[in-house]
Amino acid sequence: MASPGVVRLAGEPAPAARYREPHANAVSQARPARTDRDAATENTQIRATTRRSIAALTAQTLLQCLQAAHDLRQAFAPAARRTRGTPAPPGGLCTHRNSPGRLRHRHARGPQAALAWSQPASASHRALTGCAVALYDAADDALSLPQHLAPCALRGTMRRSLRGTMRLSTLCLAGGIGLAGCGEGLDWELDLASRQAELTPAPFFAGDPANRALFAADVSFWETPLAQAELDCFWSSGVRHVIVGTQVASIAQQQLAMAVAAGMTVDAYVYIYWDRDMVAQVEAAFDMVKGFPIGSMWLDIEEASGATALGANKLAAAVRTGINACKTHGVGCGLYTSPGYWKTYVKDTSALNDVPLWYALYNKKRTLSDWTSERFGGWASPVGKQFQTAPLCGVGGADWNVMQVAAKPTVIVDRSLPPDSGLPPPAPDGLYPKHGSVIALDYAKLMSSTIPRATSYQLALESWNGRAFVAYHTWTSADAFVKTFPVTRPNIYRFRVRAQNAHGWGPWSAYSQFDYGSYSGPRP
User: Fold this and answer.
1) Residue 258, exposed/middle/buried by CB under 10 A (0-12, 13-18, 19+)?
2) Do residue 256 and residue 319 come from a single domain?
């Protein structure tokens, strides 16, 4: 579960720090001493691997640092240019927000940057080279970032190898890639797009049957809109319940809709701030999820800012006010917190032990039966436990829980494989962003529904140049979605999707057109 975090939509207030429960198994271990021979051997191995394949050596780290270079260019761009869009999206990979004393280890989890570009038309070689040099400089700066901006701030042999790899790769790019923003006036565009591997379910986990608890995943806007393939992978991993954060309306509503359509039950949570009206926060959360069959609304009690000043009694009274406001909506109402937070700020009060409890303790113990040794706050028993945060089906920051759920699914999904028709697949539907949407974030996650027996999908994006749509890029995906960062913003884009099976490619879908940012120019 997460607060809106440091990166947010334009105009949103900056949230304060969050408390982190100490890991139960945190043990400091000294590293064995390294010799010069060790370093020389490692250096030789790295150089050899680099020669075989730069991508095989540092694919993820290199791409992360390219993202950092993009972020640096954005940060140091002229103010007039920065005002064109909202701040960088959740996911600047070289920004870690893991300051001590937080409940959530919510570092910025973002795209693995992959390069994609359109076919050149009349781009100037000199201009392209100049933009590549700018990328070179920014990437070099990224390698010099302070250590707290890891993973790009590497040291020792890996750092030296990465510096050489970055420079070599940048020189290779000089002939045809322009830096985002610098290349804006060119026909070639640099796009930092996600490159996701084919989704792989986690080992199946049935929850905690002994305590009638399901495997539940909670997500927020950090996890982005969810594709059907991701929810199907959740299901194959055992997830039967999804709890959605109410930070960004468009994302929360999309996540709820997809989870319901996947045959899961759903809850929602509202992150509580102490310097805002409690009832207003709860009401805003209910407004956001109106029309969805949520079983419970959870008050997320983990905000440290202002908690000490209020004191335990006022904090408990404020939570009670929020619970009472929740109960007027006719759904279950509970609170989420951790033993560390509750004992530190609310002085382990038992004044709220009548309220259903969902607690966080990252010891990877996947059962509610451990309550006898983990109890706090006077609760006789909890309803749910969050036992870890870990990638799930490519969704990097999903929280894993066991939770007792009384509601029943409102949609039953037939997951049996239909017979082979002997024909190519039909055109996919369910395109997102929906036609006519306005995307207020700094990324676009393109997706469609999946089709039984389809093995591959193509998502073709086109950009509006003021007179006509022109090809931007076409991605091939095994899972019918891609997260991308189109260069020109604000602008109008449209995309379509087709699927392939053993009998060939099917027809293209209809286009879905969307505004990327607040576009005010000539329209199609």
Assistant:
1) buried
2) yes
* Residue 397 to residue 34: CA distance in whole angstroms: 34
Among the ranges given (111-120, 205-214, 290-299), the one the predictor scored with the smallest mean pLDDT:
111-120
CB-based contacts of 258, cutoff 8 Å, min separation 6: 225, 226, 227, 228, 231
What residue numbers bound the domain in which 473 lies? Answer: 437-516
> Do 301 and 379 share a domain, yes or no?
yes
- Say which residue the tokens 């310097």 belong to: 275
Number of domains within the chain: 3
For 475-512, the DSSP string reads: EEESSSEEEE--SS-SEEEEEEEEEEETTEE-PPPPPE
* Domain edge (last residue) among 171, 194, 217: 194
DSSP state string for 403-456: EE-----S-----SPPPP-SSPPPPP---BSPTTEEE-SS-EEEE----TT--E
Whether 388 and 447 share a structural domain: no
The phi-psi region of residue 291 (left if phi > 0; otherwise alpha if psi is between -120 and 50; otherwise beta) is left
For range 131-153, the mean pLDDT: 42
| Cβ-contact 187, 180 below 8 angstroms | no
Q: 4 lies in a domain?
A: no
Tokens of 88: 């960088």
pLDDT band at residue 198, thresholds of 50, 70 and 90?
confident
The answer to whether residue 524 is domain-embedded is no
Which one-letter amino acid corresponds to residue 433?
Answer: P
Least Cα distance to 67 among 138, 165, 127 occurs for 138
Q: Say how far apart CA 496 and CA 432 lie, in whole Å.
A: 10
Place of tokens 């335990």: 312
Query: 493 is written with which tokens?
Result: 């884009």
Band of the pLDDT at 193, cuts 50, 70, 90? low
- Say if residues 227 and 447 touch (Cβ distance below 8 Å): yes
- Position 36 in a domain: no
Exposed e or buried b for every residue in 219-230, given b needs 16+ CB within 10 A? bbbbbbbbbbbb
Q: How far apart are CA 242 and CA 233, in angstroms?
A: 13
Helix, strand, coil share of the chain (percent; to 5): 30, 20, 50
DSSP labels for 344-375? HHSTT--TTTTS-EEEE--S----GGGHHHH-
Query: How large is the average pLDDT for residues 282-294?
Result: 98
| Inter-residue contact 135 to 170 (CB < 8 Å) | yes
HSE-CB for 18 with a 13 A CA cutoff: 25
Domain membership of residue 28 (yes or no) is: no
Percentage of the chain exceeding pLDDT 90 = 61
Q: Are residues 182 and 213 in the same domain?
A: no
